Amino acid sequence: MVVAICDDETSAIARIEDELKKTAEKLQIGMDIYKYQTGCELLEGLEKQKIETVFLDIDMPQMSGIEVANCLAERYPLLNVIFLTNRTDMVFDAVRCRPLRFVRKSLIGDELGEAVEAALKKTAGEMYAVSLGRGKAQEKFAIKDILYIESDKHYIKIHLQGETRQFRGRLSDCEKGLGDYGFIRVHKGYLVNIRYIASFRPDAVILDNAEKLPVSRDRAEKAGMQFTEGVERFVNAFYI
User: Fold this and answer.
1) How many angstroms separate the CA atoms of 210 and 196, rounded?
2) What is the CA radius of gyration of the chain?
3) 84 close to 16: Cβ distance less than 8 angstroms
4) Fewest CB atoms within 10 A around its CB: which of 79, 84, 92, 186?
5) What is the DSSP track for 76-97?
6) Residue 107 DSSP class
7) In angstroms, rounded to a whole number, what is the distance separating the alpha carbons of residues 9 and 38?
8) Tens-digit pLDDT profile for the chain (240 aa)?
């Protein structure tokens, strides 16, 4: 698990880090912890590190935790954000950012463990497992990294950011496993992640990387509706 702490107080960071290490030991998980004292430092750090969960102080000078969370939602919509605060008067405004959890600093020893477990479950739910060797082993991919999956005879090709992986399998099985996570079948040969669809046309989808995939006539109407509904869920920060 890779996490970041963002708090303007060094003493608070030290305490949070200590509690995170205790939680990791209790849950028997590995944990890499990155520490930042301003929102700007955190945003810069996220460009360099693959961080899964951010523990974010709400009440910070210059750039508040709420402002930082809004930036994170725009740039990294699947990032787990857990707010840390003793400022109950700011919680109402923070709810609009749709954080995964709130942890009260005064009760961090009691509440942090459950928040970490929630983040682990959410991240696990965002992984797609491909069975290898007749199900004896599995390889996992982060759902957010899959652009689309292509059918090629008895194989499936998983197109990721910068690479393509091939496995023996059926696209229909992929569709069953990924249907609830924002993937739509636009053609008998293509299952596409709506996160990367720049535009949807009756005959084709254009991806953010300018790649063009065909939309079959018999699937155009249903796929178009699924795309519209999926985008609405995504924009409103429901997890897909």
Assistant:
1) 10
2) 20
3) yes
4) 92
5) -TT-EEEEEES-GGGHHHHHTT
6) G
7) 10
8) 889 999 999 999 999 999 999 999 988 888 899 999 998 999 998 888 888 899 999 888 888 888 888 888 888 877 889 988 876 666 556 666 678 788 888 888 888 898 998 888 877 667 776 755 555 567 778 887 899 999 998 899 999 988 999 988 889 988 887 877 789 999 999 999 988 898 999 899 999 899 999 999 999 999 888 888 777 665 444 343
